[in-house]
Design brief:
The chain has 332 residues and is α+β, with helices and mostly antiparallel strands. Helices cover 44% and strands 17% of the residues. The protein contains eleven helices and seven strands. The strands form two sheets. A five-stranded mixed β-sheet has the order 1-2-3-4-5. Strands 6-7 form a two-stranded antiparallel sheet. A hairpin with a 4-residue loop joins β4 and β5. Bound molecules: iron/sulfur cluster. Iron/sulfur cluster binds next to loops.
């Protein structure tokens, strides 16, 4: 999108943009060919649709990939927020700040009204043009969902801006309390902090001494054993199936071999009519004791809440226990 709008007198045509996209395509970042091909096709479609819906010559660009930093004072502390705004346009009576999104899901309008990223962009923009502080509604804030070809916009009055700043201050407090566990995602490939991130820094360790070699040998032994265990588990599952078949054909529930007894066990799970169960147990004040928060369902429900409701839930979250395990995956 930066390429599409970058130019003084002549701007790239759709054909130029498609060529630029193809030339700069990096297939390495995808896990498999299918993902790579569908992402490429999606990119082509996004560019074609973008040109169908927009004439770059009609747009008055103020800045692209516009770097900013804004400091916000709160409780005697100064917090510096910096970032890059994708695009700033001049409109008939003001400006428009645009951030491109490649999300699959188009959010509700309320998401744009409450969007913290756009709020920060607006504060940064007002720092650049302080006269706008009196009438920030002259700055349209937009998220452009490229996969849908849809732009969702909002504006803020000076009063709203003042009130909503509180959300940023609340976030400062949350950030100070957080312990920031790193979470790997495809974005790690673009992260500048890999060399200091606990999830990656071992890969970049330069000096390997004797102790490190011992550690490497230990890790290798663990991985080999895990591999063997995986093979054993597969074999055990297939033997279990064969033994259950023998029991079925001999009509027995126990087999005797090698001074051991192998018994067929049966695990059953039941479901209940929840409304009826609730009715019975509520009378005895037992319902609250049997109902537990289902984390999967809660995560789904959280996605539908507004950011302030999410923050309320976050505040009442308590860590009950913590334990560590190991997981293994291929290093690309
Ligand atoms: S490299 Fe580390 S800090 Fe960077 S995105 Fe990945 S997990 Fe997060």
């Amino acid at each position: 999108m930066q390429f599409v709008h970058d130019g003084n007198f002549t701007l790239p045509s759709q054909k130029d943009a498609l060529n630029h996209f193809s030339k700069n395509w990096n297939p390495e970042v995808f896990e498999n060919e299918f993902q790579e091909r569908s992402a490429f096709a999606q990119g082509i479609k996004i560019i074609q649709n973008y040109y169908k819906d927009n004439n770059p010559y009609d747009i008055k660009i103020v800045d692209l990939e516009s770097r900013f930093s804004v400091d916000l004072k709160h409780n005697g502390e100064v917090h510096l927020i910096s970032g890059i705004i994708d695009r700033i346009d001049k409109t008939e009576d003001g400006y428009e700040i645009i951030d491109y999104k490649t999300a699959n899901k188009l959010p509700a309008q309320s998401h744009i009204e409450e969007n913290l990223q756009l709020l920060i962009y607006l504060l940064a923009f007002i720092k650049r043009y302080p006269d706008l502080a009196k009438n920030p509604e002259k700055v349209k804030l937009s998220l452009y969902y490229l996969k849908h070809g849809t732009k969702l916009s909002a504006t803020k009055t000076a009063q709203q801006l003042e009130q909503e700043k509180e959300k940023i201050f609340d976030l400062f407090e949350e950030i100070k309390k957080s312990d920031f566990k790193p979470q790997t995602s495809p974005l790690c490939d673009w992260c500048d902090f890999q060399e200091i991130c606990p999830m990656w820094k071992h890969k970049f360790k330069k000096e390997i001494n004797a102790t490190d070699q011992e550690k490497q040998a230990l890790i290798k032994k663990y991985l080999d054993l895990q591999e063997k265990a995986k093979e054993n588990r597969q074999e055990i599952t297939s033997l279990q199936k064969e033994i259950l078949d023998i029991m079925e054909s001999e009509q027995v529930d126990r087999l005797f071999a090698n001074k051991k007894i192998v018994t067929r066990t049966c695990r059953q799970t039941f479901g209940y009519d929840e409304e009826k169960l609730k009715e019975i147990l509520k009378k005895k004040q037992l319902w609250d004791k049997v109902v537990k928060v289902n984390q999967t369902q809660l995560n789904k429900a959280l996605r539908t809440l507004s950011s302030s409701e999410k923050q309320q839930v976050e505040k009442i979250k308590e860590l009950k226990s913590e334990s560590y395990g190991l997981s293994i995956k291929k290093d690309k």
